Amino acid sequence: MPRKSIIAAGFVVLLSIIFGAVLIANFSGVKVVHSDSQIEFNTTPPITVNPNVKSLNDAFVEISKTVTPTVVYIEVKSKPGKNENNEAPDPNDPFKFFFGPDGQMPDPGPQMGSGSGVIISKDGYIVTNNHVVKGAGEHGIKVVLTDKREFEGKVVGLDENTDLAVIKIEADNLPVMSLGNSDNIQVGEWVLAIGNPLGLNYTVTAGIVSALGRNIGINGGGYAIENFIQTDAAINPGNSGGALVDVNGQLIGINSAIKTNTGYYQGYGFAIPVNIVKSVTEELIKSGKVVRGYIGVQIQTVDETMAKGLGLDKAKGVLVQSVQKGGGGDEAGLQAGDVILSVDGKEVNAANELQVIINSKRPGDVAKLTVFRDGKTIEKDVTLKPKAEEDKQTSMNNKQDEGSNKGVSSTSVNSLGISVQNTPSVLKEKLNISGGVVITSVEKMSESFLRGLQEGFVIIEANKKKVNDVSDLTDALSDKKTGDSVLLKVIDKSGQERIIALKLQ
């Protein structure tokens, strides 16, 4: 090896020894922190909790422990691309957000959805929502308990009018939910919602009763019964069919719907009152269906404008819009324009209140009605009848009628914000009427527009005076001034009679 290389190697070794010595010297004074050293954490509560708060907290914990085992997870496999009526899925289904985790309507083909249910008997009867299990395929319902046991669920009965359903699993000695009394609950009460939202099984959320008697138009159909409990306890897709319980741990409602712009919780959840649940489930378990009595009328809640037009001292009662021919109300002598003030001595001031009372009765039962008519209060005993098939309504095709209206001038009724003309003979024959005036235009955002009058409606009465032609209508309004209420009886585009009240402008 060359001499220069030996000298270079020795120099490198020497530098290494010097560098190591420097490191040792620098770290010799450093104190090592041992792993057995401990930090003393402060565990003293900063405040002494109010006993009332502690009691409420303990109550929530106890309710959750006790009630959660009575709530089940339901998984549903639907028939390929069809519902129970062999129909394709409806893209406007108001319950679609409760049936799938992504808030989208499923594509045709077998689909999976999920929801919740509440055990109401030791031998396996479970109440849930109609929209959770309807359309399930054969062997398409799986029920999972909190102890992870799985069962096949079978549909016992469905009730679309209340959106309730009962299913059955083969099991014994199950934990059972205690049912409360929804008539006793008040706005402001604490409640807990228990269910399986967004795949997060057995979730408990807390809130209060925000409102009672809500009718949000989600069940659809003229026979829908909506009297929802509103709560701000968080409810999301998958909660549907789950429990809403009070601070006693008793069921006060079955969670059914949310009001939202996104498909997810925005503070407004709705539950079916347990008293409705009781009566419906009893009927479904007994016979697989619910048989109800009906008066045979179309109804509407009375507001202030309607009350003035009817001659009531204040907004109260439920207006009879039309009476079904041959129904119980027709046979008892009810008339369009009557206001039902009470049923069996119980006041009714909203359409859904009347529906709940009447639909708790069976065909053949007698409902004692107190009715306001023409400034007088009268009594009517109505023998309820079973649901009749919907009468085929006359379809008013405006385009077909336009030809017969050509050359006929319209008259503006400025106080109503509409234009009208005498009803053409073709339309009279179609509706089986002798007179009336047809609305040819409605001023946008006018009182008439906002109260539901539309082009094509036929006015047949004004302030309870028959309208044969345009002059009759103007005569009926001649003694009225701006702000006065006027009551119109009209025939809408489906051929159905309706009563509309509005203020003159």
Average predicted confidence as pLDDT = 80
Strand percentage, roughly?
A: 25-35%
| Tertiary shape | elongated
Class by alpha and beta content: alpha+beta
Strand order of the largest sheet: 5-4-1-2-3-7-6
CATH class of the largest domain: Mainly Beta
Describe the fold and architecture.
- With about 500 residues, the chain is α+β, with helices and mostly antiparallel strands.
- Strand 23 and strand 24 form a beta hairpin.
- The chain has helices at about 5-25, 50-65, 95-100, 130-135, 275-285, 305-310, 330, 350-360, 400-405, 425-430, 445-450, 470-475; strands spanning about 70-80, 110-120, 125-130, 135-145, 150, 155-160, 165-170, 190-195, 205-215, 230, 245, 250-260, 270-275, 295-300, 320-325, 340-345, 345, 365-375, 375-385, 410-415, 420, 435-440, 460, 465, 485-490, 495-505.
- The N and C termini lie far apart (about 115 Å).
- The strands form four sheets. A seven-stranded antiparallel sheet has the order 5-4-1-2-3-7-6. Strands 20, 21, 22, 23, 24, 25 and 26 form a seven-stranded antiparallel sheet that branches.
